[in-house]
Amino acid sequence: QVQLVESGGGLVQAGGSLRLSCAVSGRTFSSTFMGWFRQAPGKEREFVSSISWSGPTAYYADSVKGRFTISRDNTKNTMYLQMDSLKPEDTAVYYCAAKLLPGPKYDYWGQGTQVTVSS
Asked: 101-110 long-range contacts, Cβ below 8 Å, gap at least 24?
């Protein structure tokens, strides 16, 4: 089992920055992949970024590429999402997620943290 707890959300002006954290507890494996997703009001949840727990492989949605950076600190069992040049359309609840095996489905989810970007 894996438990995930997000933090770091808040209110920021357009052009500003925030860093989200996801504390990971439980058992992870070399095949574990971690991801960030977001859901805006009235919209479906969408992929933001993902990273391998054991290697450098990372992916980004086109909408955040060049502005967001995903990283992880295995010594602290924490994943991060550095968000720069924020736009009002980045406003959403951000969730971290984990999957222990290869495939599209994420098995574990955090409770979410609100990010609001004002114009």
From this structure: 101/31, 102/31, 102/33, 106/35, 106/37, 107/2, 108/1, 108/2, 108/3, 108/4, 108/26, 109/4, 110/4, 110/5, 110/6, 110/22
Task: Give the burial class of 64: count Cβ atoms within 10 A of its Cβ; 0-12 exposed, 13-18 middle, 19 or more buried.
Answer: buried
Q: Is the dihedral of CA 47, 101, 70, 75 positive or negative?
A: positive
Mean pLDDT of 26-30: 78
Radius of gyration (C-alpha) of the chain in whole angstroms:
13
Q: What's the pLDDT band for 100 if we cut at 50, 70, 90?
A: confident
Q: 82: part of which helix (H) or strand (E)?
A: strand 78-83
Structure tokens that stand for 83 in this block: 């968000």
What is the torsional sign of CA 74, 29, 23, 39?
Answer: positive
